[in-house]
Amino acid sequence: MVTSIATFAAFLAVGLVSSSPIKARTPYAVKETHYPPPQWQRVGPARSNHMINLQIGLKQGQFDELERHLYEVSDPDHHRYGQHLSADEVNDLVKPSDETHNLVHEWLQDNKIEPASLEYSPAKDWIKVTISIEDIETLLDTEYSTYQHEDGEYIVRTPEWSLPLHLHDHIETIQPTNSFFKPRPVAKTMKKINEAAEYQALAPSNYKPPTVGQTAADVCNVSSVTPLCLRTLYGTVDYKVQAAGKNKMALTDYLGESNNRSDTKLFLEQYRPEAASAAYSFDVQVIAGGNNDQGQENATELSAGKDLEGNLDSETMLGIGYPTPLIAYTTGGSPPFTPDEQTPTDTNEPYLVWLQYVLSQKNLPGVVSNSYQDTEQTVPYSYAVSVCKGFAQLGARGVSVLFGSGDNGVGADGTCISNVDNSTTFLAMFPSTCPYVTSVGGTKFINPEVVATDARNGYVSGGGFSRYFPRPSWQDAAVKPYLASLPKNITSFFNATGRAFPDIAAQGYAYITVWNGTTVHLDGTSAATPTASAILALINDALIAAGKPTLGWLNPWLYKKGYKAFTDVTVGSSSGCGTNGFPATTGWDAASGFGTPYFPKIKNLVLGSGGHSKN
């Protein structure tokens, strides 16, 4: 039944529950409301002819069963440990039911959206369609507006959207609707230091091959961290890669970032000469119009710090993990947007684009480093859960997914405001709050390492507790004693029953990076994450060489056995929000997790008796 425009207007006036503007099979009701964070302000209505690539997330048929498999193959005490699932097995478990597909397709056709215009994910749990704001507003019984971030960026969003009641149990999320997620690359979250002399001419090479018996104290300058320092500190310097043809590691680029090959080559020539050839041979996979510009940055790009993150990631991972092959996934989905633009946009929804691509691949890297995050409250619950389920699918297939824990402690002073009730709150970081990823905090110095901070630029390694995801049972033994030790004056600022992070840590202070032909020094958990990822890639190499499967989803192993091979960090805190935040202490803590990896101990643990079973 097609209603008239007048009837449609009358229905809209009803409020929370109204008849569908197109089909009256069941009334429309609000599916989700998510308020904009304080950094976003509405500036006016969205243009009706603005086009959006809409992503419709359907209810997955047997996610509970997938989760059961994931836990079994990730539990070091289970007889199935290490028996990862194939792409087809994962897709069979998450594909929606026929009923879900039929009902959703019927609804779309009733709204004049034809099947030929639809695109599907490999498991058909996501539907994508390019559609105008005018048509989306009818489809979702909502009104879109243009919002501006305090940094000047514009997006088109709606705080609230609706569905016919009979579809509420069949559609989990639709984006972009009410997600104000703004994933931040190094140009915004990494902290550039030594501002007055930040750009230095690349010095003549003073690299000397490591010698037997050198310690971290011999090779490390804590104000200028190099691959040799990291390899020595974390015990990979003497390891010989054995399975480079069977093992891969990966990094992700978003928001126009790329990995400049000439800069990477300059870096490796100076700090890992035997790896220099890899700068022009690592695999770049461009997804949905991602950027792979290999030219020099122009003045605008230099001012924005374009490719700082990308270069840091590729230089760090090759500097530590070589000759393990590297994949760089460079994903579009966040083009520049102005309020009058009429081209399709997926602004700030890059994880969905990347996940759908990578899950369509039959062969995957063993570990993926991700250096992009934002506060959890910028994303609606449904979006966070859907993205987290995508990471669970990767874990089930044997992929370790790592994210930085954030660079503002528990929240930058003056920003710790809930977008629900304006109360003071610690700001947890997403996707670190997803239990299916491993969150990496930052440290600095050696003997001992301490929680990373930098008073010159406000950098503090992040940590905290999710308000979306409950604490998994595998965290209980480590986290409950820590909670009992915290001062009572901060307990109202966080959710003590939420998933706790970070899980581990690594150096995240004063990294040397070559960018635009010059050297810069960078802080951040966005440096710690590729470091930890490269070390774990070498662990996977040792496992494969021994005829064993890759680590896969790390967390159950980490909290049950793996923590024994990490060096505890007991000094410092993840401060912020005008408080001392979460202190480091003996054992797990919300400032440094279980501490930093030591490769020889991890290798011995996973290759030892009961450490890792064969397929």
For this entry, give a set of tags.
about 625 residues; alpha+beta; Rossmann fold; 8-stranded mixed β-sheet; 4-stranded antiparallel β-sheet; about 20% strand; globular; secreted; Sedolisin_dom
User: What is the CATH homologous superfamily assignment of the domain at 186-332 and 366-607?
Assistant: Peptidase S8/S53 domain
Instruction: Please give the radius of gyration in angstroms.
Output: 24 Å
CATH architecture of the domain at 186-332 and 366-607: 3-Layer(aba) Sandwich
Look at the helices and sheets and give the structural class.
Answer: alpha+beta
Task: Give the strand tally.
Answer: 32
Strand content: 15-25%
CATH class of the domain at 186-332 and 366-607: Alpha Beta
Largest sheet: 8 strands, mixed
Catalogue the unreliable spans: 1-24, 186-190, 194-205, 340-344
Helix content: 25-40%
Oligomeric form: single chain
GO cellular component, one term: extracellular region
Signal peptide: 1-19
Catalytic activity: Release of an N-terminal tripeptide from a polypeptide
Keywords: Calcium, Glycoprotein, Hydrolase, Metal-binding, Protease, Secreted, Serine protease, Signal, Virulence, Zymogen
Describe the structure.
GO terms for molecular function: metal ion binding; serine-type endopeptidase activity; tripeptidyl-peptidase activity. InterPro entries: Peptidase_S8/S53_dom, Peptidase_S8/S53_dom_sf, Peptidase_S8_Ser-AS, S53_propep, Sedolisin_dom, Tripeptidyl-peptidase_I. It is an enzyme of class 3 (hydrolase). The chain has 615 residues and is α+β, with helices and mostly antiparallel strands. It has a domain at 186-332 and 366-607: Rossmann fold. Helices cover 27% and strands 22% of the residues. It is built from 17 helices and 32 strands. The strands form 10 sheets. Strands 13, 14, 15, 16, 18, 20, 21 and 26 form an 8-stranded mixed β-sheet that branches. A hairpin with a 2-residue loop joins strand 27 (511-515) and strand 28 (518-523). It is globular. The model is unreliable at 1-24, 186-190, 194-205 and 340-344 (pLDDT under 50).
